[in-house]
TrEMBL record:
Gene: Thumpd3
Protein name, UniProt field: THUM3 protein
InterPro entries: RlmKL-like_Mtase, RlmKL-like_Mtase_CS, SAM-dependent_MTases_sf, THUMP_dom
Species name: Prunella himalayana
Entry-linked Pfam families: THUMP (PF02926), UPF0020 (PF01170)
GO molecular function: RNA binding; tRNA (guanine) methyltransferase activity
Amino acid sequence: SWVGVGGRPPALPGQPGMAEAEAAGDAGLGPDPGPAAAQEDEGLAAVIGATVPTGFEQTAAEEVQEKLGSASRISRDRGKIYFEVPARSLPQVHRLRSVDNLFVVVQEFKDYQFKENKEDALKDLEDLVKKLPWTDPLKVWELNNSLKKKKTKRKKHNLQSPASRGKLSDGGVEGGADQSNTNDQEDCAQNPVAVEPTGGQDTESPQGVTSRNGVEEEEEDNEQSDVKGEAQAGSESGTKAGDSQTGEAEAKVLRFRVTCNRAGDKHSFTSNEAARDFGGAVQEHFQWKADMTNFDVEVLLNIHNNEVVVGIALTEESLHRRNITHFGPTTLRSTLAYGMLRLCDPQPTDIIVDPMCGTGAIPIEGAAEWPYCYHIAGDNNPQAVKRAANNINSLLRKNESKDSSTALGVPLDVVQWDICNLPLRTGSVDIVVTDMPFGKRIGSKRKNWDLYPACLMEMGRICTPGTGRAVLLTQDKKCFAKALSRVGHIWRRAQTVWVNVGGLHAAVYLLRRTSESAEHTRAFW
């Protein structure tokens, strides 16, 4: 095993000077730290865990290397990466475009030996709590919290000006996204019932558990583990005493919950049982109060076969919500949109088209991250075009509220059109990136057999021969393969990335345009 944060040995509760007050102090609830403490925090390092869209782990690792200068380790548990950064780099970490959720690692065990007997295995997890090095991770959590408070103050200040109304979350900790339609999002909320169980995976829905933000569970894009077991620590020890204290003292008692995500077929316990017993030990150790919905600290217990990672959540809701305020039935997560765009390597002055844009997740992400390209979004559905336009307006308002003196527009237009007859000049487009209809919530599998080849032909017409690229996401892989075989003279498959989209196994295809001219393609068709 290795220590997740800093280099200090674990502080055990029985050691001299380790009292309950220290736990509160670690969380920043004690007196103001002096200059020495501030200097110590300056050298604080953290191992950050990040959940990313399954299949795009390498993309996320490359972004971390580019923007933070840190090497990442891709977890065996798909959809997660780990990297070390100075704690002062937390604001930059929250601005990463490829990560969904962030947590600070308390400790990782690469080959944890679980006892075969359920009671013994759970007792070991309980005993683990008092041996873990909590001190520095809690400092990182408190630092992260202070950033969140600053952001909230900034938001309240900005809301006084009309230009900032409806402003989105700045890819950070406080979410500004409209969550009223989350139940309809194919790519944003994963349905535990729809996930096909694999060996030993916890597929039961947690009972008596309220999901994060009262809307949905924190999502994981792991193919083997899409379900979270959560349990509130059964004991309420230490809270009755707090009830009799003054309001000021009561405010010092942190509220927490434990979320367990378990995958594997060799465990004698469920995720609910692990979360319940581990949570009880956390409560006893810190004298925190268990609260499933209105919590300050979320402790994460990730178990993947024999790999165990204990962490503390740094995001209240997934960062993929950063761009979208008006959701549609199949809104694509912006983190997945970023991975798709990055796959086609946009260059300055490239013209990038999403011919089936839906709510505009891909072009909005593109305009935010690649502002030196020109992005065109289109859809045949007027309602989708309206939603995309609203989301673009939200992005403009967000830019204005940052600094109205230097606010610029975004290089992005949205148009209503027919995908099979685009109003674009032949060979005028560099890149096509789109989320094609899966045939489930939009369209049908039967319609896809006609739609896919027609789409590929029209995309081939507008793309520049020899240099054009297309990155296409679909779950209807059989239909896509057949359509691609019919247009093999204009498109060559260069790469396939297997992804998990809302519990569905899908694929992202990178296609390269052949040098054959458009005249020949039309004659062929």
